[in-house]
Write a structure and sequence with these properties.
- Helices cover 6% and strands 56% of the residues.
- It is mainly β.
- It folds into 3 domains: 218 residues, no CATH class; 154 residues; 143 residues, no CATH class.
- Strands 7, 9, 12, 17, 18, 21, 22, 24, 25, 27, 28, 30 and 40 form a 13-stranded antiparallel β-sheet that branches. Strands 33, 42, 44, 45, 46, 50 and 51 form a 7-stranded antiparallel β-sheet that branches.
- The protein is rod-shaped, with a radius of gyration of 56 Å.
Length: 710
């Protein structure tokens, strides 16, 4: 047996396409090889008796039942893809900073004790006698005497300390020094320096034979050459009442020694010594970003040493709050200069993490500059004011990988992709007036971490009509249960923002009637860490470079709509497989199909179609109208005041074709059709489609068929 079918068309207007396609889903069987003598016979053939429920129409669409069981209604539901918006790079912009550290006082190699001796002959002008004799009272003048050259320095300027003079009396008589004992510099070559170094006054103190006495004077601020002289001075003796023996070695000794000295300038050998001179300073990492803990994926700065101390000097630079990611130790740079010089040390922020107080606006870090040791084996000239300068020179801004702290209010731009309504191809051909009930959209907003955020968002709807875009916007309201347009990020937490009748969604959509928008967008801004949050505990949060703001839209259009003046017009191609076989059409004289529709759907349909043949230059010729002179109507069900079907309604009509008309169908390559649609109640009240709603089609055919036509 050979089968023939009319093509099923997918006409999606929510549930309409599935409903209308049922009318074309039938077949009949006709004998292929009749064996009777040629004669005309009449055949009555039952074609279809089929019932379909609404569930069957929408099982492969985005229309969902509101409840899993029962006679619940339906909604068109669509969830847009999640739209991630990355947080703009949070960067810290360190400021240049510098700190100078002076050497301060230091030590030079000690010259030891300096001695000057005066013999009896130098004092009295005569040699001692070999026998004891009484010595008469007398006043003598000591000649000036040079101390041996000091080998450890050429000159020093003392910052502190004392110079001690010890006088030892090796004479067999008592002596006194009525005049000061004066020590002077004795440099007579350039640069000449004969300035006084120290003055010692013993006054009336008596030095017994063999006795020594010591006086010390401050040398703070004194410049001392390595050549010293004790000036000529007087001594007095009361003599001896008894004869005394004077030895050749008898005389006076003046010994100089240094006690507790520190030096502020010198040209000298500098013994290795610990200085431990440290000064703390701060530099600004950022004036608005307050960091407690942070890691960075990029960023650099240079630590620069400029050493003006002309000895071997070890210097250090320590960043107390910058710690190595692995060891956790504070970043410390240590270097030994052999004389003056400059050192530049690059620092990559990626290798470290920052641990700071972060309690105030901005981030300040402490760095310490230190001079640890100095040393020189040869003569070097240095002063206490010689210094080491440490500079922090910013390079690439520090780009945050993660930060716990306070970021300045940061504005994000939100511009989502188009959320397109997928209402099917048939909807694009639809014209008419729609009335909706209980439209609802839910905007979901979440962040994977971060700060409270205020949003200023708009739902943008767009409809293209004849190539012209029609656009309107609706302000997104506050989240459910809140009066403030703010959300609080938390792991996995989605802030639900509902747009419904109370927020003006239905009136917003009605602006596009008789059609719906093609697509929706979300546009606007989100302000992270608003000013009123910044200085509160909520303004102290953690954020990562991978933190994203996610938005999505859940659209729910309850299938409770009113359609008035609805019109669906389209033209589709007809393939050979949808036409009548030629050996069948030549044997059919005429035929009539009787159709009865029991409609339990709250939707009335009027139908008419035409078979067309394409001509030259795009012309289309109408070959056959079906029905030929009228529009067939399928009545809608009756509904109650809530738009719910209470009873079905029956409609019946017949369609007749002759064999020649079937040949016209075969000659056609296009099918034009028009459905006029209207929901129950004239389309003024939205109706509700339920799982129990149905449509039942009964069809039979009477055919006059010529058997064994030659």
């Amino acid at each position: 047996m050979r089968k023939f079918r009319l093509r099923r068309q997918s006409l999606t207007l929510f549930l309409l396409p599935a409903l209308l396609s049922i009318a074309f889903l039938q077949c009949t069987e006709i004998p292929q090889e009749p064996v009777l003598p040629t004669t005309d016979i009449q055949l009555s053939v039952p074609l279809v008796n089929r019932t379909k429920y609404f569930d069957e129409f929408v099982k492969d669409t985005l229309i969902r039942r509101d409840l899993p069981t029962g006679t619940s209604g339906y909604s068109y539901e669509y969830r847009s893809p999640v739209e991630p918006v990355g947080i703009d790079e949070i960067a810290a912009h360190p400021r240049a900073s510098a700190q100078e550290l002076e050497l301060g006082t230091f030590q030079v190699e000690s010259p030891g004790s300096l001695n000057a001796a005066f013999s009896y002959k130098q004092i009295t002008g005569s040699d001692p006698l070999p026998v004891p004799i009484p010595i008469p009272p007398a006043t003598y003048t000591l000649p000036a005497s040079d101390y041996p050259p000091i080998s450890s320095f050429e000159y020093v300027e003392f910052a502190s300390g004392t110079l001690a003079l010890e006088v030892r009396n090796r004479l067999p008589v008592v002596v006194t020094f009525p005049d000061p004992i004066i020590i002077r510099n004795a440099r007579t070559s350039l640069p000449v320096d004969t300035s006084e170094v120290a003055r010692f006054i013993f006054g009336v103190q008596q030095f017994q034979p063999g006795e020594s006495r010591q006086l010390a004077v401050s040398v703070a601020g004194i410049r001392m050459q390595n050549l010293l002289r004790v000036l000529s001075t007087r001594i007095q003796t009361p003599g001896s009442s008894n004869p005394v023996l004077v030895q050749q070695s008898d005389g006076l000794e003046f010994s100089l020694s240094f006690v507790g000295t520190s030096v502020r300038a010198a040209r000298a050998r500098v013994p290795r010594q610990s200085v431990f001179s440290v000064v703390d300073s701060v530099f600004v990492v950022d004036d608005s970003l307050s960091i407690q803990v942070a890691t960075f994926k990029d960023g650099s700065l240079n630590a620069v040493f400029q050493n003006d101390i002309d000895v071997q000097v070890t210097v250090s630079l320590k960043f107390n709050e910058i710690r190595h990611r692995v060891s956790g130790e504070s970043l410390t740079i240590r270097h030994t200069f052999n004389g003056r010089g400059t050192l530049i040390v690059p620092i990559s922020a990626r290798e470290y993490r920052m641990v700071a107080a972060g309690s105030t606006v901005g981030t300040l870090l402490t760095f310490s500059v230190g001079i640890e040791t100095i040393e020189s084996q040869d003569f070097r000239e240095l002063r206490s004011s010689d210094k080491v300068r440490a500079e922090i020179r910013p390079g690439v801004p520090f780009v945050v990988e993660s930060v716990t702290g306070r970021i300045k209010p940061t504005l994000l731009s939100i511009s989502s992709s188009a959320y397109r309504l997928n209402l099917g191809e048939a909807y694009k051909k639809f014209k008419g007036e729609l009335t909706f009930d209980s439209l609802k959209m839910t905007l979901g907003v979440r962040m994977t971490g971060g700060f409270p955020a205020d949003y200023n968002l708009y739902l943008i709807a767009k409809k293209y009509d004849g190539g012209v875009a029609r656009t309107d916007s609706l302000a997104v309201p506050a989240p459910v249960g809140s009066f403030q347009k703010r959300f609080y990020p938390a792991s996995g937490k989605i802030t639900q923002i509902v747009l419904d009748r109370s927020s003006g969604l239905e009136s917003f959509i009605q602006k596009f009637v008789p059609n719906l928008p093609d697509s929706f967008f979300v546009r606007g801004t989100v302000l992270l860490n608003p000013p009123d949050v910044y200085n509160t505990p909520l303004g102290l949060q953690t954020i990562w470079d991978t933190t994203k703001l996610y938005t999505d839209i859940d659209m729910r259009f309850p299938l409770k709509i009113g359609i008035a003046g609805g019109e669906l017009v389209d033209t589709v191609d007809i393939g050979d497989e949808e036409k009548f076989p030629r050996d069948v059409t030549k044997s059919i004289l005429k035929g009539t199909m009787y159709i009865e529709v029991d409609n339990g759907l709250p939707l009335q349909m009027r139908f008419r179609s035409a078979f067309l043949r394409s001509g030259p230059q795009g012309r289309k010729d109408t070959l056959l109208w079906i029905p030929q002179n009228r529009t067939e109507t399928i009545l809608s069900s009756t509904v109650d005041q809530n738009g719910v079907t209470v009873s079905s309604r029956k409609s019946a009509f017949a369609i007749s074709l002759t064999g020649s008309e079937m040949n016209l169908v075969n000659d056609a390559d296009l099918l034009w059709f028009k459905f006029e649609l209207e929901t129950s109640g004239g389309g003024k009240i939205p109706v509700k489609f339920r799982s129990t709603d149905f449509i039942r089609i009964r069809a039979s055919a009477n055919t006059v068929y010529t058997v064994n036509r030659q």
